[in-house]
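so my prof wants the structure for this chain in the C-alpha cells format not the other one, which i didnt know existed until like an hour ago. anyway here's the sequence
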Amino acid sequence: MKTNKSLLSLAVACGLISTSASVNAAGFQLAEYSATGLGRAYAGEAAMADNSGSQWRNPALLMQLEGTQVSVGAIYVDPNIDIEGTSSGKTPMGSYSKPASSSDFAHSAVVPNFYVSHKYNDKFALGFALGTNYGMETDLGTAFGGANHGNEARIISMEANLNAAYQLTDAVAIGGGVRFVQAEGHFGAQTPPHAAPLDGLTLKYMEGDDTAFGWQVGTTWQINENNRVGFAYKSEVDLTLEGHAEGIGFDAIGGSIFKPQKYAGSMALALPATAELATFHQITNKVAIHTSINWTDWSSFKELVADIPQFGNQSSVDIKEENWKDNYRFAIGSTYQYSNKLQLRTGIAYDMAAVDTEHRTATIPETDRLWLSLGAGYQYSEQLSLDAGFTYIIAKDATMKETDPAASAFGGEFAGEVTGSIWLIGVQANYKF
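here's what i got, hopefully its the right format
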C-alpha cells in the first residue's frame, strides 16, 4: 500500500487510514505535547521556555533552561464526533436512499510525554524527548450505511528526539535535533447492511508499520528582556508501512475473487513538514502575552497508491485522489502571575481545515476548529512544579459527499454532515535538579 505523501483518507472506499484524535488538530496531527502549553491553547510555544518540554516545539529553547530538568505528563483526549447522512444509489429495481449514521465514532486516547534537558554551560545544552506528533482512531461500526467508503481507520506514532542548542550571540540561540519515528496503522471498508445479500463483505483492509528518521531546527531571538521571537521547523518524515492487504477489492486484481487471500504489500506515508513562528511579550511584572502562527504542509497529500508486488505489472494501484491543502493555525494566549506560587493561563486558537468540502471523508471528518483553553501552574517547591490544562474544542459542522464509483457499486454514494467537539485534560510534573 503506498500513498503519495500521507496516509489519510484511504480509509475511505479504497484507501488506507487516517490519523488524528479525530479533530484536535488538522489532518491527523496531534498538538498535545504538554499540559503547560495546553492551558494557553499552545500559543507562543516556539518562543516560551517553561520547562524541558519546550524543546519539543523549538530545540533552541534549551538555552533558556537552567541546570538539569525533567518533565513528565499526559493529556486525555475525549472526542465526541457524530455523523448523519444517507447512502443512495440505483439498482435495476429503481433508486434507493438508506440512512447512514454513527455516533461517538472517534476513540478517546491518552497522549503521554517525557522530556529531559541539561544545560552544560552558557553556550551549549542537550535534551531528550519522547512524545507523538500524529495519531488517531475512528470506528464507524459495521452498521454504518456508508461503510463501503470506509468504516475504520487508525494510525499510532511514537517519536524520540535527541536535541542540542547553542548560544550564537547574546540575543540569538539556535538548536536542532534528530527525530526517530515509529508508526503503525490500519484501515477497513466493507459492504453496508443494506447491500444484502452481499452485506458484511470486506472490500479492503490494510495494515502495516515502519520506522524512519526526520529532523528539526529552531532559533530564538531575545529582542530585549521582555520580548522574544521564536521560529521552528520540523521536516517531513517518510514512512513505508509494510504489512498485508485483503478484501475483494484486491482479490479482483489478483484474480482470486473466489479464493480470498492476504497480499504482502506496503503503503508510503509521509508525515508532513511543519513550521511555527511565535512571540512572547512580558507586558507587566504579572502579565505576559504570546502568539503563534503554525503551518503544516498538507498539500503534499495528493493521492493514495497501493503497492502489491504480487500483482506484477499492476503492483502500483491508484486508490484515491485526496487533494488536501496546507493548513494554518492561529493562537493567542496569556499568562498571569497570580502569586509567587501560582500562575494562571488562558488562550484561544483557530485551526483551519486541511481539506475542502468536496474532498472531506467520513473516516477523517476534517473541519475548522476553535480552541478555548484554561490552565494553571503551581510551584510546589523550589525544585518541583505542577501544571494542569483544560481545552474545549468546537468543531465546525461540515458536510461531505463520497462518490467514488468503485466503492459506490457496493452500497451507493454517501452524503452527510459531521458534528462534534473535543475535551482535552492534561497534567504534568516538572523537576529541576
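also thought this was worth mentioning. The radius of gyration is 23 Å.
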